[in-house]
Specification:
The structure is a homodimer. Chain A is of the alpha/beta class. Chain A contains 15 helices and eleven strands. Chain A has two domains: 233 residues, Aldolase class I (TIM Barrel, Alpha-Beta Barrel); 70 residues, no CATH class. Chain A has an eight-stranded parallel sheet. In chain A, a hairpin with a 6-residue loop joins strand 10 and strand 11. Chains A and B meet through helix 8 and helix 9 of A and helix 8 and helix 9 of B.
Chain lengths: 319, 319
């Protein structure tokens, strides 16, 4: 006996709302999730997401058009609201028929009405139940609740997925998507138990064959141990990084009580591109989640999604 | 239709190994979990634990004898190995027929053989998969894997329960008990999905009627919000604290890159007793987990366990 997951999730509120088969979103990640990763993920029945945070509006447009050539299934675009040209990015999504826009790192009040009036669904990323409620009040369709263990930019709240999801579930009536620390069908099942309606997975897809991360970065992800990442730069914008020369310099500065200016000077410009896209493993900024320790090889999206679904099916059977 | 949990957990490896009905351990906590809390928990079908960390060997003996008068069911004793008189504490447990000894904050090699040769089961607390494997190699019967979100003393690894449990599950063949961030039947279910055989719950029982925490501390736990705790004193012994004047002073020192000596001077002696037992809410050290934000009232153990089981039953039914 096996579980028919397509049937199981037929009426799932995230699947129905976003037009996907399984309630899994591939997280939008800077330098890593372009048209190829997003389109391949969408083709596999989950929601592929283009990470616009590292793209000019012109480059984003190219990626949307390419992705739409690769798949007729819906794709999403993740837009961090801290970038100066985010409004242009939103306009490009609206012009090109993107059905789901995921906003983060800013107020959900700023663009939600504009986007919704044009048609697309709006999802907003939150790291605490208070902001989740503000998202709901602003008209956001679903919230992505992201725990402390997640990679890349993170909230200041340090709430872990285990504690965050039930809190957000209690705070809002809209669908809740769990993010942070999810890397197996078992952990998708755990997130659903905690009250989530779906999940967002980043790190696993950063290391996929179809990701645009540099091969050296993908290799380094597969080599990560349980103690290879840390949430750093808490006094600037908290970000979870893989350990390397750069992260050690940050740690040293932070331990000595460095000022914001000193940290900004060390950070400089283009650190994340240098690491994740150009492949400088020692001086670049390498954003990844704690769950990297569970990733031991670079696989195709089809294989990653297949494994997740098969584990999820077994979990359901076992219970 | 309801789920018969007694039947469901009849063959559970933690239940069978520890002689309990439900695979739930009440965490041993300094100043909070004496004979009354432990005995009441054991009477309710879970494993009650006396927290020896705040007791002299003489006081521990009194608590064991009292607990044994209150219940004929097994009770455990938690012994942090960083205390100078921990060997005497272990000997008292052995002399008085304690069936389960939980060791923490030290090497599992130190006392495991001694304890096991005398009869009791040994459980050791770990915050990473590497130490978990060392526990297994040292002959420990079960590991308690405790995530970053847990209250009180914590590992340096910062692995959250969501990431830690699957890692520990993969690392060892002995039973794994999940701790950190667990405060509902839904989260017990989530921990089981992640690969745990049982759970340890602390914060919920710290706020119980039967806990020996000061009433002011219990009240403060019920008032905690999502951002009320922080993992602090990482350069001494990492500990998750509830925010108050004392924790703010620690935060200020840490932000300014204070030395170990400066932190030790601020900490002084008896901070945890002052807060948790004597009820000084501003200058005492108040140890509690992130999950405190989900606790909104002081309840009896019977009610807490009843709610956990009823939520767990509903979770099982829903899946």
């Amino acid at each position: 006996m096996t579980v028919n997951l397509t049937e199981k999730f037929k009426d799932n509120i995230v699947c129905k709302g976003l037009g996907i088969t399984y309630p899994i979103i591939q997280g939008g990640m800077i330098w890593v999730s372009g048209s190829k990763l997003a389109a391949t993920c969408s083709e596999s029945g989950i929601l592929g997401t283009i990470g616009a945070g590292s793209m000019t509006p012109e480059v984003l447009k190219e990626h949307i058009l390419k992705a739409q050539k690769l798949t007729s299934k819906p794709i999403a675009v993740n837009i961090p609201l801290l970038y100066s040209r985010c409004q242009e990015q939103i306009e490009i999504c609206l012009e090109h028929g993107v059905k789901t826009i995921i906003t983060s790192a800013g107020s959900p009040k700023k663009f939600t009405t504009l986007i919704k009036n044009a048609g697309p669904k709006v999802l907003h990323v939150t790291s605490n139940p208070l902001l989740a409620k503000k998202c709901e009040d602003a008209g956001v369709d679903m919230v992505i609740a992201e725990g402390f263990e997640a990679g890349g930019h993170n909230g200041r709240d340090e709430l872990t997925t285990m504690v965050l999801i039930p809190q957000v579930r209690k705070a809002v009536s809209i669908p809740v998507i769990a993010a942070g620390g999810i890397g197996s069908g078992q952990s998708i099942m755990a997130a659903l138990c905690l009250g989530a309606d779906g999940v967002q997975i980043g790190s696993l897809f950063a290391a996929a064959v179809e990701s645009s991360a540099h091969d050296q970065f993908k290799k380094k992800i597969t080599e990560a141990g349980y103690d290879s990442t840390r949430l750093m730069l808490k006094n600037l914008v908290p970000v979870r990084l893989l350990e390397n020369n750069f992260s050690k310099k940050v740690a040293l500065l932070e331990q000595n009580g460095a000022s914001e200016a000193e940290l900004k000077e060390l950070l400089g410009k283009g650190r994340s591109k240098l690491g994740m896209f150009d492949g400088n493993m020692e001086e670049g900024e390498l954003e990844i989640g704690q769950i990297a320790c569970s990733i031991d090889r670079v696989s195709r999206v089809s294989e990653i999604v297949g494994t997740l679904l098969s584990e999820l099916g077994s979990s359901l059977m076992r219970l």
